[in-house]
Amino acid sequence: MEFSALPDLASRAFGGGVVHSSDEFFAAADHLLLPDPPGHAPKTFDHRGQVYDGWETRRRRTPGHDVAVVRLGAPGIVHGIDIDTAFFTGNYPPFASVEAVELPGHPGPDELAAADWVEILPKSPLKGDSHNLYPVADRRRFTHVRLTIFPDGGVARLRVHGEVVPDPELLPKVFDVAAAEYGATVVDCSDMFYGHPQRMLMPGLARDMGDGWETSRRRDDANDWVLVRLAAPAVLRFADLDTSHFKGNAPGWAALTGIDAGERTFELLPRTALRPDTPHRFRLAKAPEVTHVRLDIYPDGGMARLRLLGRADRRFLQKRLGR
């Protein structure tokens, strides 16, 4: 489904966490939020049985169900849910539901238990060893979700795909407006043969060469590029172009162009030489507020991270939050 291309708001990569689970006898609920796809090693046992890369509860012998409460790493509007039961075949839950809530601050288990939860996915059937994809129609902003499985069993991953909507009151005056955790997203690119450019916008340092954007080798006279919609219209000051891990395949040069709401373009960084496996920082040319930035790399290659530091339009952020 289309929503699966949106960021996973619950991902551990954004700082998501499990704040409560009713049971995790066979496998910890924290696995639900790991950004990597689940793996499996058959006939690998510990003192509690087969090892699973997911959340697995014990077999219920009394009425009831199991729950896991998740703090979204990036609060926002949920467009769809993926309840991934990969490798759970004879031990997956036959049904699941998801509720959501928006709470300020850092609520604990007691506050969350007393909250007014909204059902965003009614009790729905699950298939084993499958991605179970369900669209969500509610367009309110949420900070937490609660996964309920009926009656018990194992789930490998919970993906909560949607739009990031940060609270502007918690953001500094100058911040990375190209950060996925604040709502920036890639809207177009020339090539993503080896890696999706959205990875450049993720938090933290790239773990390896696979944790970035990399294009195929060009055999023509053109160059590769990516277009980023900023988290908010902003006046940009600095850019970080990080080629870490890209040693024999870093771009030779790069340029940055800003685009405003009227589709006017502004040169922010002229074509500039890059070094392999190097975090670069550049001061950008003075320009009006822009909504999008195009990164051109010459002629091709890989980029680990893109950061664009600037002063964002607070009115835009307040409007997105509905204030």
TrEMBL record:
InterPro entries: Allantoicase, Allantoicase_dom, Galactose-bd-like_sf. Keywords: Hydrolase, Purine metabolism. Its EC number is 3.5.3.4. The keyword Coiled coil does not apply. Pathway: Nitrogen metabolism; (S)-allantoin degradation; (S)-ureidoglycolate from allantoate (aminidohydrolase route): step 1/1. Residues 15-164, 183-311 form the Allantoicase domain. It catalyses: allantoate + H2O = (S)-ureidoglycolate + urea. It comes from the Bacteria. One of its GO terms (molecular function) is allantoicase activity. GO terms for biological process: allantoin catabolic process; purine nucleobase metabolic process. HAMAP family: Allantoicase. This is Probable allantoicase. It comes from Actinoplanes campanulatus. The lineage of its organism: Bacteria, Bacillati, Actinomycetota, Actinomycetes, Micromonosporales.
